[in-house]
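for the writeup, i need someone to sanity check this before i put it in the appendix. the sequnce is what the collaborator sent (i think, or maybe the updated version? ugh). structure was predicted straight from it, no edits. if anything looks off just tell me and ill rerun, i have time this weekend
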Amino acid sequence: MIRVGQRLGKYRLKRRLARGGFADVFEAYDTLERVRVALKVPLGGKLDAALQTDFEREIQVSAKLDHPNILTLKNADVIDGCLTIAYPMGEGSLDDRLSYRMSTPKALDLAEQLIAALAYAHEHRVIHCDVKPDNLILFPDGGLRLGDFGLAKHSVRTLQASSSGTPGYMAPEQAMGRPSARSDVFSAGLIIYRMLAGKLPEWPYKWPMPGLDRLRRSVPDVVPFLQRALKLEARSRFRDGAHMLEAFREAKRLTLRRLERRKHKRR
C-alpha cells in the first residue's frame, strides 16, 4: 500500500489530495528540487495491463502538449516498481473554487483559459474526454490548467470508444461511446454555465435550463454562445475548441463592455 508519510524515491508523500477509480493523487515534497508536487500513483502501487495503458497514455499526451493552460508533466518514472507521474502543485481545483461566489469577470477569465486549453489540445489532435472541474487546477497567479489526460483520444474526428468520463459533465454522444472534439465543447459549456449561473444543468438538458434567468440578467451576450455549446445534437455545436474560443472571446468582449457601462451609470 502507498501511504502518507512514505518515501517514493525522491518524493515524500505529505497528504492525499484525491482518490480516483484507479489512482491516488498526493501532495508530495521533492527532496531534490525542494518543491511541492502533485504525485499520481496507482491504487496500491500496482496496475493491471489496461490501467497501465491508461497511465502511459496520460504520460505520452501530457509530454506532447505544451501550453500555459495545460498541466505540465514534471516527471514520470517507475519507483520501487510503482509507476509515478509528477505535476506542478496548484492551490486547488476549480471544483473547490465553485463552492463560493465568483465574480463575472473572474468566471469569464477562467472560462477563456479552459477553452484555450481545449483549442490547443484539439489542434494537436487530442480529445480530452473528461473535462470537469476536478481536472482544472488553479494556480496563485490566477492561471488555470487542464490536467488528467488519462482518457484522452488521439484524434479530432469522432471515435468509437468506451463511455469513460464523468457522467455529470459528459456529452450525450460520449455516453454512447462516440466521443469527439464536440464532446469536449459540451463539457466545457456545462462548466461555464455552472460558473456563471451557479447551477449545473442536468439530463435531459432542456431549455430553459435552471439559472437561465440569472444568465439573461448578468451575461445576456453569453447566452447564445452557451446555447450553441450545449446543443444535444453534436453537429450543431462548435466544431472544436478553436471555433468555440473565437465565439467566446466575442461574447466576453461584449459582456465586459456591458459591465463597464453599468459601472459608469452607477457613478
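The chain has two domains: 7-88, 92-266. The longest helix spans residues 241-266.
thx in advance!!
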